[in-house]
Amino acid sequence: MEPDAISTLYREYSGYPTPISAFVTANDYMALLNGTSFTLIAEWSQSETFQGTRLHYAQQWTLIQNYSKETDIDIQPPSPCSLLHGELLSSYSLSGDLKAVVRETSGQFAGQQFLEVWSNSSLKKIIHLTALNKHGRVYEDAQFGCLAWSTCESRLLYVAEGKRSIGESYTSASSPSAGESTARPLGSPSEKDRSMYWEDWGEGLTSKSVPVLCVADVAKGTVTVLQGVPSHVSPGQALWAHDGECVFFVGWWHEPFRLGLRFCSNRRSALFCLDLEGNCECLSGDTSSVSSPRLSPDGRYLVYLEGQVFGPHSQCLTMQQVKLSFQRLSESLPLLHLPVSGAFHAGLTARLMYSTFSGPSCRLTLAIIQLAYINKYIVNINRHALIDCSAYKAPTSHLWLKTQSSQDERVMNFWSSAVHLKIAVAFLPLAGGEGEVSWDPLGESCLRGAIVNVLDIIPTPQEENPEYSGLDFGALLVTSNHLPSRTKVPLVVFIHGGPHSQFFAEWNVTTAVLVKLGFAVLMVNYRGSTGFGQDSILSLAGNIGSQDVKDVQRAVLTALADQTAEKLLTLDPDKVVVMGGSHGGFLACHLIGQYPDFYKACAVRNPVINAATLLGTSDIVDWRYSCVGLQYSYDQLPTPEALTTMLQKSPISYAPQIKSPVLLMLGGKDRRVSPHQGLELYRSLKSRGSPVRLLWFAEDAHSLARVDTQADCFLNVVLWFQQHLHLH
C-alpha cells in the first residue's frame, strides 16, 4: 500500500474518540424525587493528525428511567459536540449545579491560568490564578492533580507548583542534600542561588518539583496555600473530608532525592489528614506505598491502595480501609499471589484511580486487571463483598469512567476489545442485585471483520522458573477474516513495555490498522506482566533478557503451530517481524540477537539497549538494580559486579549476531530511557554494515505520545516492514 493510503487509514482509526469522564445529574427537582429523567455529560479526547493536536470536547444525553423496570433506560439522541478550549481540569459540584474549570488561555494572555465557576446558565466566577501569584502552575496530571469541591460547594481544592523565591507569600521545600533542612528562608534570593538545581519528579512530570495544596474561596475570589504539609513529602491526590474542615492527601517522600514517579506505584508514600489550621496527621503506615484515596459518601470510610516500596514498579496492591471515627485500619481486599480460576484473582493495580463511590450506599466501583482483561467490579465496603458486573464476555475489557454523581447511582462504562470501542451506561440495581446490571450503549466504533483469539501459554519444563513454578502467561492474536481462504499472512509480534504492564483485550489503534493492512498481530503478555498475580511479577526480577525473551519466542511458536485445517488463514513463518517500546524494545532487540534468522525486520521505540550505561541517566535508577535481581538503596554505588550483570543481560551483548534490519524511533526528551541507548545500538549496527534507520523526535519524550509523532512512527513502521518482507 502507498504511504498516502496508509496515512489516510491511520488518520481514520486514530481519530476514533476516547471517553475521558462523565457526570450524571437529575434534570430538575421533580425528576430528582421521581428518579425519572437525568442528564449525562461525557467528555472525550480525539486525535487530529492534520493539526497534530488532541481535541477535547463534551456531549450530552438525556436518560429516562423506565417505570416498569428501574434498571431500563430510554436514551434520547445526543446533543452536538461542544469543543472545550484550554481546559486543564474540570469538576462538577455534588449537586450538579456548578462546574469548576481550570483553564489556560492562548492568544493575548497565553500561558495565563484561570479558575472558572459555571452554573447551568452562565459564568458565575472567574479567578485569575496567575495574577494572584500565590503559586506556580496548576498540576493537571493524574499523579498529583485534583480539583475537588467541598460539600458546601463554596471552596475548591487543587494542587499547584509551590513558589521558590521571595516576594512571595510562603516558603516551600527545596531539594537539599541528605540531612539538610528542607526549609527555604524568606528573603530575596542571592546571586549564588540563581542557577540552583531543582529536582522534579522525572519522566512525564518534568518541572513538577514542589507541589502545594491550594484552596480557592469561590465567593471571595481568594486562594490560600495550605500550611502544615510535612516538609519531607510532596502532596497530591487530595480530597475534602465530609465536614469540609480538613483534607486528605497522599504524600510522597522526596528525601533524600526524587525518583521518577510516573508508572511507578512503588514509591514510599503515606495517607495524611490536614486541617485548615495546619495540623497534619498520618493515617496510614509510613513504610509502604499508597495511592488513590476515596471517601465514602457518608464520610465514614476512606479507602486507598497500598503496596511495597521498591522492587517491581507496578505490583499487585491491597485495598485498605480506614474507619474515620475510630481511625481503625483494616484490609478490604488482599494481595493475590496466583491466579485462581473463576474468581477474582489477579490483584489490584493503579487502575483503581478510575474508581468512584456510587451514590449513598457505600458501593465502590473499580476496574481490576485479570489475565488479558480489565473487568468491572463493585465492592460493598460495609460487607467487604466483591461483585463482578462486567457487561460482556471475553475477549473484552471494561473500564469505569470517572462518573461523578451525588444523589444517584448511575455508572458509565467504557468497553472495548482490541478492535472495538463501545461506551455504555447503566442504572445500578439495589445492593445485592449488581449482577443483573443492564448496559445500554451510547455509541461505538469498530474494525469490521477482525478476530481476537486469546492464547494461554505454558512454559516448557526447561523454561520454568524454579522459584516460581507453575506460572503460565498469555497472548492476544488478532487477525482478519476478510482475507481469501488459506491466505498466508505476515505476523507482527508486538511486545509491551514496562515490563510490569500489559496488553489488554482493549482498543489498540496500532493493532487495528495493522490488521486492516493485512497483517496478523500477536500481542504477548510474558511472565512479569500485570494481571497474572504477584508471583508472576516477582518471577521476572533477575531474569530479564532470558525468561521474558523465551516467553515471547514461545508465544510466537505457539501461534505459528496453532494452524488447523479449519482456519481461514495461515500465519507465514517466513514473514515474522517484531516491534516494541521501552522494555518491549529491549525484548525485540534481544530476540533479533538471540534468534538472528527468525525475524525479518524489527522496529523499536526508545529501547533499553545497555542497562549498565543507562544506570546514571534514568529517572528510575532503583529499577536498574531491581530488574537484574539486585537490592537497591538510596546510597547505592555501582560495583564492577553489578555493572557486569547489567551488561550481560542487555541486548547490546548480542549486537554482533543481529541480522534483521532495525528501525529505531527515539524521543530527544526521554528521561526514563535516554535516547543515547538507541544511539548505542545504531552505532554498533552501522559499524557492522547492518541495515538500520533512526528517527529522532527532538521534542518528544519516552512515550512518543505527540499526535504527529505517533502518525510518523506508524507510517515508518509499516513501510519498514513492507520493504523487508517484500510486500507490494
UniProtKB/TrEMBL annotation:
Its EC number is 3.4.19.1. It is found in: Cytoplasm. It is an enzyme of class 3 (hydrolase). InterPro entries: AARE_N, AB_hydrolase_fold, Peptidase_S9_cat. GO terms for cellular component: cytoplasm. One of its GO terms (biological process) is proteolysis. Homotetramer. This is acylaminoacyl-peptidase.
